Amino acid sequence: MLKKSIDIGMIGLGKMGGNMAQNLLSSGFPVCGFDVSDAAISKFRESGGTTRDSPAAVAADVDIMITSLPKASAVKEVYRGGDGIFQSGDPGLIVLEMSTISPDMATELAEEAATHDIDVLGAPVSGGPEESRDGTLTIMVGGRQEVFDDERTQTVLEHLGEDLYYTGDIDSGHMIKLINNVMTMGNLLLAMEAVSLGAARDIDGEVMLKVLGKSGGASNQFHKRMPRVLNRNFEAGFTIDLGKKDVGLALDTARSMDQSMITTSVVFNLFTQASRDGYGDEDISAIVKLLEENRGTTVDAENEVDEAYDGY
């Protein structure tokens, strides 16, 4: 299918949605967008995108919508608000819901969309702004199989992600996304607690990076964020506040299932404390600061390290 024959709408032009939109534009797709941020709108227009003044106006002009939003209240407004998608989307519109929301909310949106003859796929992603820009995201998609298999859906998804997985029912992708984010925050927290103990014993951070990077405790999060910690670079890729929000969503989901999450509750409490201490807008790697304060030490290295480190 010719790219120019698929009109794409993008609601949410932040670090994730904005980079996905730029990727699609550079790949030859026409993309129409909306965001509440004037700065995000300006950057999108400079990349060649067109804009409308509401989600409803975007939905009226496109074949496939993508929503990538930071919180549930924004998702509700974009779909159900007076200027929302449900007000003007044509029958047969496909919506890829890529925000991190609860599985129950994904189900509710899809059921309501069906009353408007609109198909919603729950399509959350794993990866950050860099992967969004490069089209190398991992995308987990739940919803109607025939909508996932639609040529338009596949064409768009294949330009956004490197690894695409059909996961089953509408809520399944969002459930796996929450599981992934719990593992991410928990893994990172434990790694930072461990290396802060090493720092308290005056072990050089680069030495720990090299040795642990080749040992059984190594992980994606350790490889990705330990170099940033050593360089004291906490510019946000994914913030403490967003991590706290996602872990909270997982806990809420577990409670709705009458399931306990003992360790995850500890993770949530510590991320909450880090947010209260003023680190909420910093990268999740800044969780180390909370642990450093408790120990009276700093995790750093004698020399600057390569942040592109991927295991020695």
Automatic annotation (TrEMBL):
Q: Which residues form the 3-hydroxyisobutyrate dehydrogenase-like NAD-binding domain?
A: 172-291
Matching SUPFAM superfamilies, A to Z? 6-phosphogluconate dehydrogenase C-terminal domain-like, NAD(P)-binding Rossmann-fold domains
| Hydrolase among keywords | no
Q: Where does the 6-phosphogluconate dehydrogenase NADP-binding domain start and stop, copy by copy?
A: 7-168
Mind listing the GO molecular function terms for this protein?
A: NAD binding; NADP binding; oxidoreductase activity
Tell me which UniProt keywords the record has, alphabetically.
NAD, Oxidoreductase, Plasmid
InterPro entries noted in UniProt? 3-OH-isobutyrate_DH-rel_CS, 6-PGluconate_DH-like_C_sf, 6PGD_dom2, 6PGDH_NADP-bd, HIBADH-like_NADP-bd, HIBADH-related, NAD(P)-bd_dom_sf
Q: Pfam families given for it?
A: NAD_binding_11, NAD_binding_2
Q: Which domain of life is it from?
A: Archaea
Family, similarity comment: Belongs to the HIBADH-related family.
Per its UniProt record, what PANTHER family does this chain match?
Answer: 3-HYDROXYISOBUTYRATE DEHYDROGENASE-LIKE 1, MITOCHONDRIAL-RELATED (PTHR43060:SF15)
Record's protein name: NAD(P)-dependent oxidoreductase
What is the originating organism of this protein?
A: Salinigranum rubrum
